[in-house]
Amino acid sequence: MTKQHYALLLEADPNKELVNTYLQRSFCFDATYNNELVGVLALLPTHPETLEIVNIAVISEQRNRGIGQQLLSFAEKYAHYNNYKCLEIGTGTTSFGQLYLYQKCGFRVFEIDQDFFTIHYDVEIVENNLILKDMIRLRKILN
Ligand code: ACO
After folding, report:
1. How far out from the chain centre does Cα 67 lie?
2. Pairwise CA distance, residues 69 & 78, whole Å
């Protein structure tokens, strides 16, 4: 894990404490292109047979080129081959692009975690001109 990896993880999740906590228990991967880091992925076993994508990020210069989708597809394959039955991911209600991507990849909303960001984050997060308060949790049942 380099400084670059860590900085990228914080782009997906600015709460250092939370990141440090889940990283210890997660399976972590990176994506490289021409030997340069382009993406990170952290997968955390939560409930029995469930793996959660707790962090996914692509460097800003390489976004919108399909790397995020490839990381999601890798997460799904990794979960499947390791006998997990369900893959989950949570994101802010204001993260419209991410919500689009996850639903495009077959994830379905199953829960809203009200005030997750107000409770767990010290700094107010503003995204798409909205104050971020709630988390949407999505899941994909793996066949
Ligand atoms: N805004 C607008 N559209 C988006 C966004 C966004 N933030 N993110 C993804 N999309 C859309 C793209 O338009 C694209 O649509 P298309 O395929 O129909 O053209 C589609 O989603 C797929 O994009 P990819 O190129 O596969 O994804 P990308 O490589 O850009 O990675 C990611 C997506 C990881 C969300 C990236 O935008 C990123 O690192 N963002 C900052 C960090 C972040 O928000 N991470 C997720 C937080 S939630 C969590 O970590 C559990």
Report:
1. 13
2. 14
Give the per-residue pLDDT at 48: 87
- pLDDT cut 70: percent of the chain above it: 100
CA of 112 relative to ligand 1 center, distance in Å: 20
Ligand 1 pocket, 75 CB below 6 A? no
Checking if the pLDDT of 1 tops 90, the result is no
**Residue 11 carries which side chain, given as an amino acid letter?**
E
Give the global pTM. Answer: 0.95
| Mean pLDDT over the full length of the chain | 96
Ligand 1 pocket, residue 68 CB under 6 Å: yes
Give the count of beta carbons closer than 10 Å to the beta carbon of residue 35.
Answer: 5
Centre of ligand 1 to C-alpha 91, Å, is 12
**Does ligand 1 lie within 6 Å of residue 56's CB atom?**
yes
